[in-house]
Fold this sequence. Notes:
With about 400 residues, the protein is an alpha/beta fold. Helix content is about 40%, strand content about 20%. It starts with a strand and ends with a helix.
Amino acid sequence: MSKSVCFLITEHPFLDARIFKKEAKSLSRQGYQVTMIVPRKNGYLFDVDGSIFHDQFRSPTFFHEGIKIITYEQMQLENQLKSLLYNLRSGDHTRFTDPLTLLGIEQQADIYHAHEFFSFYSGVGIKRALKIRGKRCKLIYDSHELEPDPLVMESRNTKQLKNETLTSMLDETDSVITVSQSIKSWYHKIRPDIPINVIYNSPPLTDNYNPGQGKQSDLTITYEGMIDSKRGSFQKLMDIAKLFNKRFDLKVRIIGGKKKSSNKQSLPIPPQIVDKVEFTGWLSYDSIPEAMQHSDIGWIDLDAEHSLNNRYAMPNKFFSYLNNGIPILTNQCNDMEKFIQTYQCGYIVKKRQAQAMDYVQALLHLHSNRKQIFDMSTNARNIMETHFSWEQMEDKLFDVYNRLNL
Length: 406
């Protein structure tokens, strides 16, 4: 008899690459019965680019690509931390009355897999309720990021409540999955005895890889993901292009862009480089490798000065670049820096907050050292083929589940 798995989600879109495209689909192929409980916004499900599914997925429960989807209206628990902590410390399940918990209890699943801080809370309530009913289930916390982040701008009281809430929830989980070695170490300091596994945000190995980065006279720098005035450093990327193009030819390719739900004006491209910047728009998950062809450098810029999560981050785009043999250019973030130094697959600007000119200097160095780009490109693809593609990460996921089933 196959085991049943229930994914608990409070924030992510239900088609999220890590949650749906990789983990849920992999477990389904492995023979697990997979259910996802996912949030709606004002009655509608939403896509990874922020757009609303007005004419699709209207039923409260449906199947999509073999996965059962159960929906509920998104809840806001951020302002209820004090009550949540009280509920956790009570040791009881009766105060867990949020819709995600109640729907989760109905599923009577063997394994619950929570993907955010607040869905983790619901997972604890579900586990308690089912135990009272004689059903013993296992709980996984899949920590996509470090939460709470001790460096972000939050009140001392909020940080304390979050830390105490996390500690209490970890006391009742059976396994933790996370996305970087540093986050794993962070949780081990809280719970040294808990099984914690790192499963990177790697894509499946693309089969249309064409090596040769750095061989053209110009350079193409690519950015993948969300980008606007606050996220993705759009203005900095435009400044890099303006400064570099005063001396050499640099093209910019942006795969993704703003959230479609955003009402803000379009991103302004400076007139002197308008012919150098290409927006592909939001693409399907399977179309990204093709859009990355003929890119020389993959760019990541995070504020590692004011966010420990950013210092520890290993974002989707990091492995997406490597998967296509694209060397990475990024600022000084602990885990990415260690990875790049270990596998010689990118270039680090040695600043936690790098400016446009810092990246320009790095690009000038790479422009004059084309063999370095080619070698880093080869290394990037090789390590994805041998160690870090989703095919390898999938085996780690199955191992986590196999251990829970013992």
